[in-house]
From TrEMBL:
<protein>
    <submittedName>
        <fullName>DgyrCDS12066</fullName>
    </submittedName>
</protein>
<keyword id="KW-0732">Signal</keyword>
<dbReference type="Pfam" id="PF12260">
    <property type="entry name" value="PIP49_C"/>
</dbReference>
<comment type="similarity">
    <text>Belongs to the DIPK family.</text>
</comment>
<dbReference type="InterPro" id="IPR020519">
    <property type="entry name" value="DIPK2A/B"/>
</dbReference>
<dbReference type="GO" id="GO:0005576">
    <property type="term" value="C:extracellular region"/>
</dbReference>
<dbReference type="InterPro" id="IPR022049">
    <property type="entry name" value="FAM69_kinase_dom"/>
</dbReference>
<keyword id="KW-0964">Secreted</keyword>
<feature type="domain" description="FAM69 protein-kinase">
    <location>
        <begin position="147"/>
        <end position="348"/>
    </location>
</feature>
Length: 373
């Protein structure tokens, strides 16, 4: 492992950056990262496994240099009418915690609004500022604005780390255009050959964590759209789940869920195409319902079940993806039939509210397995 290259840190760009509270650690070289010889799925996203004070971490840039270059040019053009300037002088003139301004700038930088911006409100953005309370308000505004435009993951993790007990990693801090993120667990594939009882416990905690996103917050419902084997970590000691990619998280005003409101919700209701279309139309209440259905169906189809017949019912969302065997493979004979029936109903419901009832019963069976001697 090697120290974080200054070429990606770009502390000189602050306050057009994610923050600078971790620069002391970065500059001392106490944070090290693994730079692969060939691009990997993680490194292609600007994410690198590392170590800090004996802790496993991920060093994240959140975006490629091209996105930052466009951000810098926009800032300079807007303030000084030139594409090249000292962006540290221009950022304070453009940083505005207003969702419409942020959404419009995302279009310029990314070619489209980022998912979170459709159902967010200025009320939420004002709460996100609290995640930067270590800084004076003008600097907090600059750092938050940069993150929301380039990659909102770091703003979300700041907020969750400070205010909430949610299944997302801690954001330890930032230096320039990198952030240091907790990696407290192992990928799910690590546990695929563990005894069935241990895998049942992991499955229970995944479902429990999903329920916490939609039920456990006073004001907000969270929709996590990146569920996959690669994006879930499990910690055996703490028996906790971490969802590792929150850049596409959508945080919307909390609603009182009526799971019968949609009728049957299957592929036409909860495919990514369907829910993104609703999101783009800013029909946030419907999006929140349908995204919740999609989250549970995705976990049941792509992570829990080992039945190809059940997976096929999930439709075209599986095309082109390589999915390992399900966590609940090789279940014991006494629960095998019940698990398959409930997983099938979770993936494709045949009764109104069938999916959520199936999840409830599935969690009860898994809890019994965990508590069995």
């Amino acid at each position: 492992m090697t120290s974080i290259p200054m070429l990606i840190v770009r502390k000189d760009k602050c306050d057009a950056c994610y923050g600078d509270n971790f620069c002391n650690h970065v500059m001392k070289g106490s944070i090290v990262m693994d730079i692969p010889h060939k691009a990997t799925a993680m490194s292609s996203k600007g994410a690198y496994v590392g170590q800090w004070e004996g802790k496993s971490i991920v060093v994240k840039t959140g975006a490629g240099t091209d996105r930052f270059m466009m951000f810098d040019r926009y800032s300079c053009n807007t303030v000084f009418q030139t594409p090249d300037c000292d962006v540290t002088s221009s950022i304070s003139n453009i940083s505005n915690i207003d969702i419409d301004i942020i959404r419009n700038l995302q279009v310029k930088i990314h070619g489209r609004p980022l998912p979170f911006s459709y159902c967010s409100s200025n009320d939420l953005l004002n709460e996100l500022v609290a995640g930067y309370s270590r800084y004076p308000i003008n600097r907090a505004t600059n750092f938050l604005f940069t993150s929301l435009v380039i990659n909102p993951e770091f703003a979300f993790l700041n907020f969750f780390t400070k205010n909430h007990n949610l299944p997302f990693p801690r954001n330890y801090g930032s230096c320039g255009r990198v952030s240091i993120i907790e990696r407290n667990g192992s990928p799910l594939e690590t546990f695929l050959d563990n005894p069935f009882k241990e895998r049942a416990e992991i499955a229970f905690h995944i479902l429990k964590s999903l329920k916490s996103l939609i039920n456990d917050q006073d004001r907000w419902s969270l929709s996590y759209l990146d569920l996959s084997y690669e994006n879930i970590l499990y910690n055996e000691k703490s028996k906790s789940i971490l969802f590792t990619e929150s850049g596409n998280l959508v945080i919307s005003q909390k609603i009182n869920y009526d799971w019968t409101a949609l009728g049957l919700c299957n592929e036409n209701c909860m495919s990514k195409e369907a829910i993104y279309k609703i999101l783009e139309n800013q029909n946030c209440a419907s999006f929140t319902y349908q995204a919740a259905h999609s989250m549970f169906a995705t976990v049941c189809a792509q992570i829990l079940t080992d039945s190809n017949d059940i997976r096929k019912k999930f439709g075209n969302k599986l095309l082109g993806e390589t999915i390992p065997k399900g966590l609940l493979h090789s279940s014991t004979d006494d629960v095998s039939k019940s698990l398959q029936e409930l997983l099938s109903q979770c993936v494709t419901e045949s009764l109104v509210n069938g999916r959520m009832n199936a999840v409830k019963k599935l969690m009860a069976i898994l809890k019994n397995i965990i508590n069995s001697t």
